[in-house]
Design brief:
two-stranded antiparallel ribbon; mainly alpha; 4 strands; 51% helix
Length: 450
């Protein structure tokens, strides 16, 4: 792969390429690069955490929701293997759990660790969806969010039973538009999930226990089969539904590709999923090595999510968190981790961009550039001035300073025209030119896609 292909891969699987990525993947095939990503251990976070609150105190997630969000962002910024964090973010969206409905906050970080464990294929190569969904069902944050801790034989709560089928495993309808389940199935699945209790007196070590006195025993009719379903067997029954393989492989696909897969690709992914005993690594590998990963390199067509965009900016500019800038920007851009808009998570795609969120993206790029200038030169707090720099040289220097991002041909022409048109006889004019060029390269339309 060349620089353009590596850049595409690292934005789709992480938060943009580092100099190390460009070097280690140069000349390798897509298959080789993906194998390296999947085999890489989680590793230690880069550097020492310098992340701070606006009041300069260390981040304290149990005390502040802002810190809860920023702590995960800090991990994304400093991780040596961003694919693990991207997959964790994917599972957070798939199993969307809202901090506003979950207390104490330690339950959210515990769930985040669960998703990270199932995303680290070097440490857990046999990670599979059937095991993951069973752990999610007993995860304290999920139990509290969808009220399964309140689901008893005397008082059936259908929240988790419904989402187990609709959002997590099957989808509401099959490929032909037929209902995958009905309200009776929801009720009966919920009965099978009764009896689990949650104790959070010690928020660091929440306790999940089964109380048989609160379990609804006896036969239940679920998806056409009658049996005395319990927690384990009801998952078997749901996962045996013919719609499950298609649903889960297309869900994983949509995290990395902007367009839905064709039928041939879906069938291939389903075969990989089933032959791999529903392990996640083979499916992720096939999704990432699909030919569409490197399609339309000259015209990127996948909109970066706010988290991917913002963390990518931080990594590009080599910044650490030192105030609430990133939190506020993510909120303004429409994707605050741990605070999904609905139980279905974030819709994504073109929904990421509107007048307000696009403005927020440009504002963030400008703010972070100013932080980078202050970090590089605490006195002048500005990009360096180069006398006798030609307009073309100014353009090239600006682009190199912000990681040589992709620019469309029209954008290059427009920025070069601007560079030639702007007065640059004096130092402050040349510095202003650099500011504008860099801000547009990182905050303009081209920077929003990969």
């Amino acid at each position: 792969m060349d620089r353009v292909a590596i850049t595409r891969l690292m934005w789709r699987t992480g938060f943009g390429p580092t100099a190390r990525d460009l070097k280690r993947f140069k000349g390798r095939s897509l298959q080789q690069a993906v194998e390296m990503l999947l085999s890489a251990p989680q590793g230690r976070l880069a550097g020492q955490s310098g992340s701070r609150r606006a009041d300069k105190r260390p981040l304290d997630p149990p005390e502040s929701d802002r810190d809860l969000v920023l702590e995960w962002c800090d991990r994304m910024i400093r991780t040596p293997n961003p694919l693990i964090e991207r997959l964790s973010l994917m599972w957070h969206n798939h199993f969307a759990t809202d901090r506003r409905e979950v207390s104490p906050p330690q339950l959210m970080t515990r769930q985040n660790a669960l998703f990270r464990r199932y995303s680290d294929f070097a440490a857990f190569p046999t990670a599979n969806f059937p095991r993951l969904i069973r752990e999610v069902g007993k995860d304290p944050a999920m139990m509290r969010f969808l009220n399964n801790e309140e689901n008893t034989a005397e008082d059936i709560n259908e929240n988790y039973g419904r989402e187990l089928m609709e959002l997590f495993c099957l989808g509401p309808t099959d490929v032909k538009g037929n209902d995958n389940y009905d309200e009776t199935d929801v009720r009966e699945v919920s009965k099978a999930l009764t009896g689990w209790e949650l104790e959070t007196e010690n928020p660091e070590v929440p306790m999940v226990e089964f109380n048989p006195d609160n379990h609804f025993g006896g036969d239940k009719l679920i998806l056409g089969k009658r049996a005395d379903f319990d927690y384990e067997s009801v998952h078997d029954q749901v996962l045996d539904h013919y719609s499950h393989p298609r649903f889960i492989v297309t869900s994983i696909w949509s995290e990395f590709h902007p367009e839905p897969p064709d039928e041939g690709t879906v069938k291939d992914l389903m075969r990989v999923y089933e032959r791999g005993r529903r392990r996640l690594r083979p499916v992720v590998a096939r999704v990432l090595t699909h030919s569409s990963m490197l399609r339309s390199l000259k015209e990127p067509n996948m909109i970066k999510s706010p988290v991917v965009y913002a963390v990518g900016l931080m990594r590009t500019l080599r910044l650490t968190i030192d105030d609430d800038t990133l939190y506020n920007a993510l909120n303004d851009m429409g994707q605050l981790p741990y605070f999904p808009p609905t139980v279905a998570g974030w819709e994504g795609g073109v929904e990421w961009l509107n007048t307000n969120t696009t403005t927020a993206r440009f504002d963030l790029a400008s703010r972070l550039l100013e932080k980078a200038y202050a970090k590089a030169d605490p006195v002048k707090k500005a990009p360096a001035d180069v006398e006798d720099e030609s307009p073309t040289e100014a353009f090239k220097r600006a682009r190199a300073a912000v990681g040589t991002p992709w620019l469309a041909r029209g954008t290059k022409s427009a920025l070069l025209y601007f560079s030639k048109s702007m007065d640059a006889e004096r130092s402050h004019q040349r510095i202003a030119r650099q500011r504008v060029l860099r801000a547009f390269m990182l905050g303009g339309p081209d920077a929003q896609v990969t």
